[in-house]
Amino acid sequence: IFPLSVYLIPYVKKAKKKAEAQDTGEASDAESDVDALLQARRGISKKNHVDEEKKTEKKLDFSAPTGWDELDSADVGSLESAPLFRLTFDSMHGYNGRTSSRNIGVLKAGEVVYPVGSSIIVHDRSQNKQKTFSHHNDIVMCLAVNHDKEILASATIGAKPELFIWNGYSFAVKQRFVDDHESCITALSFAEKDPWIASIGGDDSREMTIVVYDYVQGTTVAKEDRAGKNRIISIAFNPHMRSGEMSFVTVGVRHVRFWSLQRGKLVGRKGTYDIGCGSESMLSIAFTDPTHVSASKDITFTGSKDGRVFIWRDTKA
After folding, report:
1. DSSP assignment of the chain, as one string?
2. Across-strand partners of 120?
3. Is the model's pLDDT at 22 over the cut of 80?
4. Which of 26, 137, 189, 260 allows an S-S link to 21, with CB 3.0 to 4.6 Å?
5. d(Cα 308, Cα 317) in Å, to the nearest integer?
6. Quick one: average pLDDT of 62-71?
7. What is the C-alpha separation between 135 and 137, in angstroms, rounded?
8. What would the pLDDT profile of 124-135 be if each residue is shown by its tens digit?
């Protein structure tokens, strides 16, 4: 494919001469150009071939496509036509877990979902095959999987980050949200009993923002532009709340806040420590299940960067 692009442009202008050459019985430019193209795959340019007596041959620094040496002039075709071959996706390799977090999910049939650059891989482990969701226009920073293990949310970096809600099996896009965050979206969380998706946006140069969307209606439920100056790393809805009750927790660099929706506005309460330690940087969140333990629904667990687990009753550790 690459040699075709090298030789295509200079000879497009000669297309009109081809018919004249055929009328006179002379070899057309296209035919001679195909010969030059086949010579080029061996690393010798047409000009250098003409100047061979002057010993000015120069190797072209490119690699021919696989199987190129097995083609002849009939296989290559006319230089005025499009290439005869197309590249198709097979698989992608790589994963970034250093500068992002909470970006791996598992679907209901066991498929593993994770981002590679601006694409998202859905890897079927049983067949060892991959499919890609490629609707994003920038690097994917985070993703989340809904409780039904079919619907996903994924979001990007950039000055105008975008958030997609899509089906992990059909790849059908349900919603696309943009313009509510002014910097990269760093974390996502689905509500358990309501069609809500919460997103965290921001960087070290500005206040963090929180936006909660209704991904069925495609509307914004609530937004907080001043969620804190310290970086928020993770967000999680409390899965044990009743339908219609909004409660979630955010953690990050010296940041723990407990959020609720009151009169249409997000209200965040700072976590406080009663155990004689200072403000800690937290990475993860979990909740107790009142149906399995003798505990209030307000008990929350957070994991710190130094490996400790903090137990929170209401807003106190």
Report:
1. -HHHHHHHHHHHTTHHHHHHHHHHTPPPHHHHHHHHHHHHTTTB-HHHHHTGGGT---B----PPTTGGG--HHHH--TTSPPS-------------SS--S--EE-TTS-EEEEETTEEEEEETTTTEEEEE---SS-EEEEEE-TTSSEEEEEE-SSS-EEEEEETTT--EEEEEESS-SS-EEEEEE-SSSSEEEEEE--TTS--EEEEEETTTTEEEEEES-S-SSPEEEEEE-TTSPTT--EEEEEETTEEEEEEEETTEEEEEE-B--SS-----EEEEEE--TTTSS--TTEEEEEETTS-EEEEETTB-
2. 115, 133
3. no
4. 26
5. 12
6. 66
7. 7
8. 999 999 999 999
Q: Which amino acid is at 45?
A: S
- Least Cα distance to 195 among 235, 237, 163, 224 occurs for 237
List the structure tokens of 312. Answer: 């929170």
